[in-house]
Design goal:
One of its GO terms (molecular function) is acyltransferase activity, transferring groups other than amino-acyl groups. Pfam families: Transferase (PF02458). Keywords: Transferase. Strand 4 and strand 5 (67-71) form a beta hairpin. Helix 1 (40-53) packs across helix 3 (146-160), helix 6 crosses helix 7 (241-256) and helix 7 (241-256) crosses helix 8 (305-319). This protein is 33% helix and 18% strand. The longest helix has 16 residues, at 241-256. A five-stranded mixed β-sheet has the order 1-6-7-8-3. The relative contact order is 0.14. It is built from nine helices and ten strands. The radius of gyration is 22 Å and the shape is globular. It has 332 residues and is α+β, with helices and mostly antiparallel strands. It has two domains: 2-160, Chloramphenicol Acetyltransferase (2-Layer Sandwich), CATH 3.30.559.10; 179-331, no CATH class. The protein has helices spanning 40-53, 100-103, 146-160, 187-194, 199-212, 222-233, 241-256, 305-319, 322-331, and strands at 2-5, 16-18, 28-35, 60-64, 67-71, 77-84, 120-127, 132-140, 269-273, 291-295.
Length: 332
C-alpha cells in the first residue's frame, strides 16, 4: 500500500538550486534499518515535519541545456507499506551488503528521471513472523553525499522521538565560485584542465565500471595493518595506514596481475571529500556533494611500498591545501 507524504509546512516555494559538477552522480543512496518495534503512523508524521526542514527532497530535477537544477516544488514523497509472511526473521548481515538482490525487496530505489521522479522514497516492510520492521530509504545522490543523507536521517530520527533536530539547520544553496578565480598557473590544475572531461561523464564511467565488475572484499587484521604501516611509512611519519594500504593494493596488482611493467598502475586517482577543510568553500551546514578527484603524480617505483605510499600522501596533502582547493573547486 502506497501513500504520499506532504511537508507539514511547504517551504520549497519553487526555488531552484543550481547543482555543482560534483553533484552529478546519477545514482541513489540506499539504506535499510531494522527495528524491533515501530509506530508507522508516527513515522509518516515525522517524515512530513522533516520535509518542511528539507524542502530540497520534495523537489524534481530540471535540466536546462547543460545546467542541472533541483526545483523545490513541494511534491509528495511516496511511502510504501507492505507485510511479509515468508521471511522467518531478518538475517544477520554485514553493515555493507554487496549483493543488491538481498535488499531489493525492501527498498524502492530512486531512479534518475528529470521532472517526474521523486528524490526520496520510503518503504516499510513488516515481518509478520518475527514482528520486525524493515525501513528502506532511497535518496537521489544528486541531492547530496553520505554526510548530507545522514543529517537528514538524523533530523527524521530526532523528530520521530519528539526531539528538536540538532543544529545547525541545513543549507541547500550550493557554494558557486567565480570562474575568474580559476588559476591555471598551478601545474596540476593546468594538466587536469587540458585532459578534462565533463564531470557527469567521469562519474558515469565510475558507475558503469561498478555495474560491470565484481567487487572483491579484503579483510585485514589490526596487527596486519600496523605491520603494513610500519613497513610502508619508512621514515616519513606523515604517511598514514590508509596510504600504505592503498599502496599495498597497487603494488600487489602490479606484481601479480600485470604481465609487463608497461601495464603497471602508474598513478592513483584520489577522490577526496573536502567538507570541513575550507569554510570559504563549504561548511558542515551545506548539503551537497563536495568532492574533488585528481590524479597523483607518477609513481617513481611501481613496486615499492614506501615510495608509492609517499606519493599518495603527497597528493592528498595537495588536495587538502586551502589555496589549491579554492582554485580547483572553481574548475569542477
Amino acid at each position: 500500500m502506497t501513500c504520499y507524504i506532504d511537508a507539514s509546512i511547504p517551504s520549497g516555494n519553487g526555488r531552484r538550486i543550481t547543482l555543482l559538477g560534483t553533484d552529478l552522480v546519477f545514482a541513489s543512496i540506499d539504506n535499510v534499518f531494522v527495528y524491533p518495534t515501530l509506530n508507522v503512523d508516527r513515522l509518516r508524521n515525522a517524515l512530513s515535519k522533516t520535509l518542511s526542514i528539507w524542502p530540497i527532497l520534495t523537489g524534481r530535477i530540471i535540466v536546462n541545456c547543460d545546467e542541472y537544477m533541483i526545483e523545490c516544488s513541494d511534491n509528495s514523497i511516496p511511502f510504501n507499506y507492505t507485510e511479509n509472511n515468508e521471511l522467518e526473521c531478518w538475517p544477520d548481515l554485514p553493515v555493507v551488503v554487496d549483493d543488491k538482490t538481498i535488499l531489493e525487496p525492501f527498498i524502492d530505489s530512486v531512479q534518475y528521471k528529470t521532472e517526474v521522479e521523486p528524490l526520496l522514497r520510503f518503504k516499510v516492510t513488516y515481518l509478520l513472523r518475527s514482528k520486525e520492521y524493515i525501513v528502506g530509504t532511497s535518496t537521489s545522490h544528486l541531492v547530496g553525499d553520505a554526510y548530507s543523507n545522514i543529517r537528514f536521517l538524523n533530523d527524521l530520527s530526532q523528530i520521530y522521538q519528539h526531539l528538536e533536530p540538532l543544529p545547525p539547520r541545513p543549507i541547500f544553496q550550493r557554494c558557486l565560485l567565480k570562474k575568474e578565480k580559476l588559476d591555471l598557473s598551478f601545474p596540476l590544475i593546468k594538466e587536469i584542465s587540458e585532459k578534462a572531461e565533463k564531470i557527469e561523464s567521469f562519474f558515469g564511467r565510475i558507475i558503469k565500471g561498478k555495474s560491470e565488475t565484481e567487487q572483491i572484499n579484503l579483510s585485514f587484521s589490526s596487527e596486519q595493518l600496523i605491520r603494513l604501516h610500519s613497513i610502508g611509512k619508512c621514515d616519513d611519519e606523515e604517511v598514514t595506514t590508509h596510504d600504505t594500504l592503498c599502496a599495498y593494493i597497487i603494488i600487489t596488482l602490479n606484481k601479480y596481475f600485470f604481465l609487463t611493467t608497461d601495464e603497471h598502475i602508474q598513478r592513483a586517482r584520489m577522490i577526496i571529500n573536502y567538507r570541513g577543510i575550507c569554510d570559504s568553500l563549504v561548511t558542515h551546514e551545506h548539503v551537497g556533494n563536495y568532492i574533488i578527484s585528481i590524479p597523483s603524480s607518477q609513481f617513481t617505483d611501481s613496486l615499492s611500498l614506501p615510495s608509492t605510499a609517499k606519493i599518495i600522501r603527497q597528493a592528498i596533502k595537495t588536495i587538502r591545501n586551502e589555496d589549491f582547493l579554492e582554485k580547483m573547486a572553481c574548475f569542477t
